[in-house]
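// run 5 | inverse folding | seed 20
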């Protein structure tokens, strides 16, 4: 397995990446969630605590204290297991570190080893959406965050988007 080359330093959005982001065939929900990340409007637990919507600033999945979007999106070990499984399914010869995945999600730039960026963005967007749903169901409704269920759902939904429908005869 090779590790995609990346700097973890934040940079502005890639114009080419932005164009592909808006054209990639992901669901509107996935694109909206990802857009919230791009513009810095993610409802982190410490913010929810400040406005009285949460009593704790701990991650409810791994009980680590956090105040950044990196942990919320990909750094939480529970969520990272989902990312690792889904990305491993679609890109078995690549390893995406937490920093690499975070860089892709926040700058819309990706490793040069990715030959189809639109495909990558669909995988990430769909997985992000599934994790987001699982996170909030767990946070708000106390529905367990089921990693394997979310992995299967993300793979199934991604394949549905990426697999062309047969043409009618």
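// decoded
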């Amino acid at each position: 397995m090779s590790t995609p080359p990346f700097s973890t330093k934040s940079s502005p959005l890639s114009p080419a990446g932005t164009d592909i982001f808006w054209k990639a065939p992901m669901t509107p929900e996935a694109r909206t969630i990802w857009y919230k990340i791009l513009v810095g409007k993610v409802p982190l637990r410490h913010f929810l605590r400040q406005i009285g919507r949460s009593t704790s600033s701990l991650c409810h999945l791994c009980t680590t204290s956090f105040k950044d979007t990196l942990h919320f999106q990909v750094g939480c070990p529970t969520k990272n297991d989902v990312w690792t499984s889904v990305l491993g399914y679609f890109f078995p010869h690549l390893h995406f570190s937490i920093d690499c995945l975070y860089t892709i999600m926040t700058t819309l730039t990706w490793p040069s080893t990715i030959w189809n960026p639109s495909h990558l963005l669909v995988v990430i967007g769909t997985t992000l959406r599934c994790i987001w749903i699982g996170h909030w169901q767990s946070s708000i409704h106390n529905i367990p965050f089921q990693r394997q269920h979310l992995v299967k759902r993300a793979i199934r939904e991604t394949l549905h988007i990426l697999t062309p429908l047969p043409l009618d005869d």
